[in-house]
User: What shape does this take?
Amino acid sequence: YTYKRIDPAKVKSQMAEIIEGFNNAKDARDQNKWMDKTKAIFSDYETYASIAHLNFNRNTKDENATKENDYYDEIDPSMKEISLNWAKTLLNGKFRNGLEDIYGNHFFNLKELELKSFDPKIKKLVEEENKLKNEYTKIIAGAEIEFEGKTYNLSGLVPFHTDADRDIRKRSYVARFGFFEKNSEVLDIIYDKLVKLRHNMARKLGYDNYIPLGYAAMGRTDYNHNDVADYRKQIVENVVPLVSRLHKQKKEILGLDHLYFYDGINYKEGDPKPKGTPDALVLAAQKMYGELSPETGSFFNIMINEELLDLVNREGKMGGGFCTAFPKYKRPYIFSNFNGTDHDVTVLTHEAGHAFQAYSARNQPLMEYYWPTYEAAEIHSMSMEFITWPWMKDFFKEDTERFKYLHMVKSISFLPYGACVDHFQHWVYGNPEASPTDRKIKWSELEKIYLPERDYDDLEFPKSGGIWQRQLHIYQVPFYYIDYTLAQVCAFQFWTKFNADRKTAWDDYHRLCKAGGSLPFTKLTDVAKIESPFKAGVLEKVVGEIWDWLKSVDVKSL
Assistant: This one.
């Protein structure tokens, strides 16, 4: 794929011409032609920016990749300003009603939020924010941790965290947290600057604090922080007690009187691992997607044939997994860090869910409709993890049932942690003058509410309340974490649907993917024929169905 730098000055000139043509158009149909020209311009920009960011994440030590990534971070505020002028033009257009008939009103609601989340007067602050986020990325990706006579990055250390030997598990966490403790002060400084910077942005745009600005930046048009707070309460009431029961069950399985944070396994002999090399896993996935549906079959063949996968952990590579896309070429791209754990399979199916959605929505008429907002986007990925259960035998062989139980336990146990991260961020941005020590104290308080079973033993760094520093979302994308929990509740509903009628469930899922971002979250749940997690009683019902399944599993036989 071709890569080049976009020149904001040239784009500004092109957009001035388009805006003039748009304003002089005779009707909505004529205006639509100018919108197509804009789509082409921003499609190029999004594509080249995605390639630059991807290359940097693939090798954070590559000087050229770093330079190109920095370039796109630097021009990002200028491109936001250009996009803002276009949003104003659209919202004030004389044939707006006609365009709403063509595209629906969600597009215009998103443009309203764009106006609320950016202004040229915060341009320099956005540039500074991007630099600070990159500082965090470089520190995390550059981790070099000595353990058992070898050097590992953070992803490479993970398999030791689930070793059958308790002593190895603990010592591997000592090594991990040693890295964070060593960098804790600088990570505190980066986050402190980010919080104050974002608060400053919010004040300049007329907000009391960053919370409403953060919601606007996330494109949330159909719910607010009060709805999220109520939803978090439902997690405390319905999910935390279930996780406590699972914690007790885990003690019985492991034969331990007490569980510490480093007891992150579910079976005495260690958690199930995928059978086969990374290449073998990809071939198994190709077979799986070929059998799942004609659509997923052709999609995954393209991903392999066009080398749109970078899956294996290596030195200098940023940790984690994500899916990005190149709109100009109508192609997604999957990035992950295989390390020999069961997570290799879940991250592959998770990111493939994102990629399949992007591929399915590639012909949406607007750039803004390629991807939905984050919480809706995570429905496709988290649901795909469960949709692919019938093929897990190709990855885990004799350990398949053990994997399924582990996957479900991990998924439901994640909800309280996700809510804890979200609650923490709301507190942070509601108290921007709090010190790094205050934040650590608050995190520890929230852990007692959402994660009451956690015991760090004598691991001083997490005991001090600093473990949140490892969560890159807190630094990179404020308020993007509750989204995973909302989507997880939706994915559980798809799990139920697929257990009942796979064909109907697939049709609902595929319809959701093709809808892209053409509707807000709560309307997309209607498209998928599932219920919004915000609706009273939904979480309680979903948790009940999961507990019924968990009770049906003969844990001793696993």
User: Anything to note?
Assistant: The CA atoms of residues 143 and 153 lie 5 Å apart. The chain has 24 helices and five strands.
